[in-house]
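Consider the following input, taken from an annotated entry for Putative ATP-binding protein involved in virulence (Rivihabitans pingtungensis).
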Amino acid sequence: MTILTSLTLNNFRCFTHLEVDFHPEFTVLIAPNGSGKTTVLDAARVALWSYVKGFDLAGKGAMLEIADVRLAPRPDGGMEPQLPACISAQGSWGDGVGERVWTQSRERVKPRSNAQENPAAKQLKAFASQLERQVRAGEAVILPLVSYLGTSRLWFEGRFTSAAKEVTLENSEYSRTSGYRDCLTYVSSFKAFCAWYGWVFRSYREEQILALERNQALSDAGRRFAEVIAVVTAAVDALVATATGWHGLEYRASQNQQLVMHHPQFGSMPVEMLSDGIRNAIAMVADLAFRAYKLNPHLGAEAARQTPGIALIDEVDMFLHPAWQQTIVASLRSAFPSIQFIVTTHSPQVLSTLPRENIRVIEHSEAGSVARMPDFSPLAHESGAALAKVMGVHQEPPLAIQDDIRQFEQCVRANQEHSDSARALRAKLDAAGYQFHDSDLATWRFLAGHRAAGGKPA
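Applying the prediction step yields:
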């Protein structure tokens, strides 16, 4: 089983030192803006590169760069690099070795100097190279999925497009190990997915036509193409269909050679015409499903469900309506039950779907930085409870009218609702657009009546 158990960071970006452990299935990182959530994901990305770079088709790397070294302020206002900078990862890769600890460190900030790896990191690369040799020998070995999906997953390649026009795929695209190509870069892979999925769909239609012309059953190749389509559509539908009604991702030559989705009310529409939230969800799931099938085609229709691995997702709730945020975690786990997810969020709706064991709160103090499990478990509670008790944010916004609201409440509780001061406060609040809950007014009036009747003070 492929699991990232923990990370230890030293002098990496904003952290002097940080230790963070991960849940084996799903971990959500939370913190205020600029407190290091994405930094932890990027550190995990660098750590996973030790494995991925063992494959010839890995693409762009993820190294500990000079720019990643923490800078400390000097009394004179300058900034000084703090060395050594180090990322230490602990985890297992299903290779029979058990848990290993591998590191990448940087001792120098000299231009063109390189980060250094410990022997365990080099062994991890060797393990990947061994898997590659087994794949080339035709062995049905399981290749774990590795994927990093940053916040630029929709836009890095320029204007989002779902065009899947006919292109000639490179020979390397037919290799199982091409499922690792650029899997840890900031660059979106959706364009590559569109080209590949369009080719799969066209090839499937070609096999269907041949079978009809020859009055024969669909060929083995045709069945494999159908299997690929089933894997991708099932994964996308698991995330998108219930939440939005859009379903059935497919290639349409008649719609300008684009990928389209279908809706019971709105008909068919190119993916690029859908909302950012839907496109984000499609891009996220399509990346995982298409890599899972490429890496492990021998798993067939179960490739997405049975492929193990590690997926890093920044802002998992990006562009999603709160109702969708309440289902995104369950949908990802349902579509990819064998993958360990490590994600970030600012959404209390997401947190309300998880127990405390799946949440890590990143905090900074004079004593240092920690990534701790929250004291309160927000699972199945109102999102306001997650907001207040896990994220440390008051459920009511800090607006100037809060004082007027409290003063009016005290007037009503004191049976002074119809006094001149209370009327003035109510008029001011009405003009601002504030609306009282009927239940609050009823409670305050009841307490005022109880007090007037000789009961205890409200």
